[in-house]
Amino acid sequence: MKNFEFKNPTKILFGKGQIENIKNEIPENAKVLMLYGGGSIKKNGIYEQVNSALSDHDLLEFGGIPANPEYAVLMKALKVIKEENITYLLAVGGGSVIDGTKFLSSAALYDGDHPWDILANKIPTLKGMPFGTVLTLPATGSEMNSGAVITREETKEKLGMGGAGLFPQFSVLDPQVVHSIPQRQLVNGITDAFTHVLEQYLTYPAGAYLQDRISESIMQTLIEVAPKVLEDPSDYTAASNFMWSCTMALNGLIQKGVPTDWAVHAIGHELTALYGIDHARTLAVIAPSHYEYNFESKKEKLAQYAERVWNITDGTTEYKASAAIKTTETFFNELGIDTKLSQYTDDYEGTAEEISKRFKERGWEGLGEHQNLKPEDAEKIVKMAY
Ligand code: NZQ
Ligand code: ZN
After folding, report:
1. In the chain, how many H helices and how many E strands?
2. What fold is seen in the domain 183-384?
3. What pLDDT does 132 receive?
């Protein structure tokens, strides 16, 4: 096991009725800006619950943060924060609203002229404006981590940011919110969380028995609850396990002491930036090709994954490893997720070269757990995914 440090300061309020308790988490004298997306919270009752919980607080709101939070929209929210002297942010939404709020938390205290530099120059955020979240869509894990991904339509970029100052102070996880989530977003959530575990697990054996088993149990739980959540999103037991699995998949715990990959996400973000494909779907497109391309260096963990998660116990290491890749792709397909780029766009020719060019320009010369994947390798992986 590798050396590690671990600190996660986010307080989780899990369960039915927890939205009400946010009033105890936000300082009484705070001037709060509630941030939300395209309006789903106004249809499912969450908006009213938040407003009633904060009836004694000084509360303003900013709605309209789109999926894949857009820089231009966030800059309008930043103006409100400055003009209204906001002191506390509250994200009510999925990964996009939470990530957008993290950007604002950072940008609100940033003294440079162009907040985009936080992303373009990879400036870590050590201190941000305090914020909490009410999660409405289990998927990204953003509710309990310190990372965010922001999109800029103008330049077709999608870049990450983060830092110790970007953990939410608290996050409400009320599984009852799952009942109103459309099927498309439910399968996205399952796929995204599942791939988060794969990125931190499908590398090479590192003698981290416990981290491996926690990862395997998160995947097993997602596989078990997926059909139940899809059949009945108001099944509370299924929704609770779905929600907590998604949070646990990316709150930092399973990546401690082990190598991590994240190449699938790096390449996937480009597909969202270029074509607007849902984040989770880009992962399902890239993951099978990535594991096939890096078969030799990943085959031991692939075989362990085959045995422990999919119960594929017969055959050689190579046989099991190969079966694991196919089974994973089938799992995504059975959720209704297409795993080839050409199923999302007719305009895919040249995509691989474009992504390779972008990685070269950014100096991303070493992706993956061995930091040895060059832009040329990413190009080949994307071509395999056409
Ligand atoms: O905007 P509204 O109207 O609220 O509708 C949203 C949105 O259209 C809807 N929705 C959310 N909760 C709902 C609901 N509809 C009905 N009932 C509810 N309870 O779902 C749609 C998608 O929401 P979005 O927040 O975009 O989805 P998700 O949570 O999948 O977030 C995706 C974003 O997170 C980033 C992705 O790149 C993408 O930009 N990620 C963030 C990560 C992180 N911070 O750690 C890690 C991930 O790998 C990922 O990159
Ligand atoms: Zn993801």
Report:
1. 14, 8
2. Dehydroquinate synthase-like, alpha domain (1.20.1090)
3. 99
Q: Is the pTM of this model over 0.80?
A: yes
Confidence of residue 288 (pLDDT cuts 50, 70, 90): very high
**pLDDT tens digits for 344-357?**
999 999 999 999 99
C-alpha distances in angstroms, 287 versus 210, 302, 303, 305, 367? 24, 12, 16, 14, 14
Instruction: Enter the tokens of residue 190.
Output: 């399952």
What's the CA-to-centroid distance between 137 and ligand 1, angstroms?
6
| Neighbouring residues of the ion ligand 2, judged by CB less than 5 Å | 192
Choice from 43, 65, 74, 140 to test ligand 1 binding pocket (greatest atom count within 8 A of CB)? 140
pLDDT of the residue at 178: 98
Instruction: Quote the CA–CA distance of 307 and 135 in Å, as a whole number.
Output: 34
Ligand 1 center–CA 111 separation, angstroms: 29
**Tokens encoding 271:** 């597909």
Count CA within 13 A, CB hemisphere, residue 162: 11
| CATH class assigned to 11-176 | alpha beta
Average pLDDT, the chain: 98
pLDDT band of residue 135 (cuts 50, 70, 90) is very high
- The CATH 3.40.50.1970 portion of the chain extends over 11-176
